[in-house]
Every structure is written in C-alpha cells, then in structure tokens.
C-alpha cells in the first residue's frame, strides 16, 4: 500500500478550477462579441438582493463583474431588508415580463419574513438560471434538458473538461442539500457523460460514513464542515472534489484564510486528483451561472 500511495502521490493532479472557469468565460466572451457584432442586444442577467447580507453582496458583486467583463448586461435590483413578500413578488413579475431580461436570480438567504419557496416558484421557469424552480428540478430528476443548479453544474462541467471517468464508478457525495448534494447525486447517476455512476448520497444520519467514503472512486464533499474529510477516509487514487468554503481566522495580514471541507494537505498526498479551496469548485459556480444565462438568451430550453 505504501508504494501504491507513493505512486499516486507522484502523479497527483490539482484540478485548476480557475483555469477551467477562465476558458469557459473566454468562450462565452467570444460568443457575446459575435452576438453584438450582429447588432443583436446582449444577453441580460438580473439579480434581486434583499437586505445587506455580506456574503450575498460579495457573490452578487462578483456575478456583476464577471458578466460585464464578458459583455453580458447585468442589473441589480437591491431591495431594503424590510421589503414585503408581496413587494418582492411584484418585482419578480416585472422582470418575468421584461423581454429584454433573459435570466433572473433571487439571492438567498432572504429575510425571515419572506417565504423562499414562494419566491422561487414565482420566477419564470424560462428565466430560472439558478435551476431552483420545482419545474426545472423535476426536469433535472427525469433527465430532460433544463437549467441545472450552478454549483453542481460547475462540478459536472469540471469533471467533463478534466476527462474524469464516472461511468461505472462509485461516487460518494457527502451532503444532501437542495443546492449541491442532492442535484450532483442526481446528475452523476443519470445516463450520460459525465454520469452513469453508482452514487451513494450521505448525510448526518448516515451510518458507517468512513467505510462508505473509503469505497469512493470519486468523493464529493459538500457538508459545510472545515477539514472534515481526512486522509484515512479516502481510498488511494480517488478523485476528491471539495465544495466547502469556510473563512478561517488566522494571524495572517488578512486575518483569515479560505478552506474547504477536505484536509487538503493530507488528502492531496493520496488522491489522484483534487480540487483546491480556493481555486476549485467556487470559481466554476459563476461560470455555470453564465452558461445558463446564455442558454436562457438563446431560448435553448
Ligand atoms: P448545507 O445546506 O448546510 O448541507 C450540509 C449537508 O451536510 C446536509 O445534508 C447535512 O446532513 C450534511 N452533514 C452535516 N454534517 C454532517 C456529518 N457530520 N456527516 C455527514 N453529513 C453531514 O450545506 P450546502 O449549502 O450544501 O453547502 C455545503 C458547503 O459547500 C458549505 O461549506 C458551503 O459554503 C459550500 N458551498 C460552496 C459553493 C460553491 O460555489 N463552491 C456553493 C454552495 C455551497 P443533514 O441533511 O442530515 O442535515
């Protein structure tokens, strides 16, 4: 086992999410430039932000920056934290009916007096580039073309572009959230490439978690616990995809660093490929959201 581990270590690959996301964005930039050259209007993504959640503000600002850099129109509807559910629904209906807006995201979390399910259901499924509307979730579940949620879609795109084999492999997903764990498990178990995997979906009530992880050819960690996946939970040669994002306080100049759900320093010694945090899955999420915006613009679905 020691020799095998050494061989795996020497051939270990760090999956460069930044480079893959940049490539996707450059492809989209060229496509948008061609659209504008034909004197057509640019694709347009709108975001609604209710209140002042700092993480949400950062994400929306990054989305805005990325869209503009690619020639995509980006508009932000920034609403006061006291906005009522009815007022928010009116803004959504307005955007649903605006033919010059292709995609709409309503940033979560919403203030507690607003029912997120009602809000998601109010978004036109044809503009639901986050892929959270029940109609689009249902289409995903039965394998019909639809908007896939950005983070799992970004992971699948990363797997595709890296040529990671999933057919016949055992994929173990840690975490069953509606935005990451459940959809990635669905996507990889469907027919297709990437896909055709045998998927085990784990959560906080899973017994024998470590034994299941050790069987994984591809291990996807999305549980929201820093450094949870340790080297003794990983089969030598496995592909490890780390979705977690945590801001950890430290004594550096910045006062913090970003870490994932995986103990990167130790797990990278035995994995065949691994995504870093930062620089891995996180950057693919916005790339996937922009891919969905292009689909909405082209009315492909
Ligand atoms: P979440 O909604 O909090 O879900 C966490 C999941 O992990 C739940 O299904 C939970 O099980 C499970 N879990 C928690 N503790 C566990 C344990 N000890 N053993 C096994 N399962 C356990 O999290 P999320 O929204 O999916 O996010 C997960 C992580 O990904 C977070 O760090 C988040 O910041 C990050 N994230 C990153 C991106 C990106 O763009 N890279 C996007 C979204 C999220 P139960 O269902 O039983 O409670």
Tally of extended strands? 11
Largest sheet features: 6 strands, parallel
Ions, cofactors and other ligands present here are: NADP nicotinamide-adenine-dinucleotide phosphate
Which CATH class of the largest domain applies here?
Answer: Alpha Beta
Number of structurally distinct domains:
2
Q: Might you state the CATH topology name of the largest domain?
A: Rossmann fold
Strand order of the largest sheet: 1-11-8-7-5-6
Q: Which class of secondary structure composition applies to the elements?
A: alpha/beta
Strand content: 15-25%
Q: Number of helical runs?
A: 11
Low-confidence stretches: none
Helix content: 40-55%
Label the CATH architecture of the largest domain: 3-Layer(aba) Sandwich
CATH superfamily of the largest domain: NAD(P)-binding Rossmann-like Domain
SSE order: HEHEHEHEHHHEHEHEEEEHEH
Q: What gap, in angstroms, lies between the N and C termini? A: 49 Å
Topology:
Layout: H1 2-10, E1 13-14, H2 17-37, E2 44-50, H3 54-69, E3 73-79, H4 85-96, E4 103-106, H5 116-122, H6 134-141, H7 150-162, E5 170-174, H8 181-189, E6 198-202, H9 209-214, E7 218-221, E8 239-242, E9 246-249, E10 256-259, H10 264-267, E11 273-274, H11 281-297
Parallel strand pairs: 1-11, 2-3, 2-4, 5-6, 5-7, 7-8, 8-11
Antiparallel strand pairs: 9-10
The structure holds NADP nicotinamide-adenine-dinucleotide phosphate (NAP).
